[in-house]
Structures are given as structure tokens and as C-alpha cells.
Amino acid sequence: MVAIHSTANVHDSKVLEEAVDAISPIRKPSGGRLRKRPKKLHADNKAYDFPRCREALRKRRATVLAAHAGHVDSIFVSGKALKRDGKLVDVDAERVRRLAGESRDHLFEQAGLFSTEAK
What we know:
By secondary structure, this protein is an alpha+beta fold. It has helices at residues 12-21, 51-59, 93-110, and strands at 26-28, 31-35, 40-43, 63-66, 75-77, 80-84, 87-88.
């Protein structure tokens, strides 16, 4: 396992190569010669979405197993479907849009950016 520390607000993609290169050589359980890099990388970040990161990992012959929310087909909580076939279940989209608009308008008005009242 490798941990890389960086300053605040540094995107994962900036330290991906450093992290992969810091992985110690590993030996197969049956013995044999040391490999330079693991064959698989399990990622929980979005760094792999960048072409330069994919290319860096390809050069190191690493197979990447990474997931993001778009890969999730269905979500069930306590037996109830919340997402099925990639779409949210029982969501009132019009209500969500209305509430989001009201929230936006309130925040803009509080910041003095515009007033929602007719003049």
C-alpha cells in the first residue's frame, strides 16, 4: 500500500504516477522473480479519466479497475429500488427542478447578485 501526501486541492491525477511508481516490487506467492509493478490497480478516484493518466498506466502495463457512478445500474436499500436500469426510481423531476431553482434564486438574492422580486 502506498500513501502520497500533497497540498490541499491537488487533484488525484497530479500524483497518480508518483503513487504507482512508489509501489514496492512484489513477488508471486509461489516465489519467482520480482515484478516491477502490480498487474492490476483498483482505483476509487477519477484520475483515470484523464488521457495522460491512462497513457502513463498503459506504459507501466497496469490493468485498471475503476468505477464511477455512471457504471452503477441499480441500487437497492432495504429491498427498495432507488435506481434501476441507470435511472432514479420514484423521483419527481419537476419538483427537484423547482426546488433547485428556488434555492439558486435565494442564494443569488442573498449574495446581492439579483432580485427575484418584480420591480
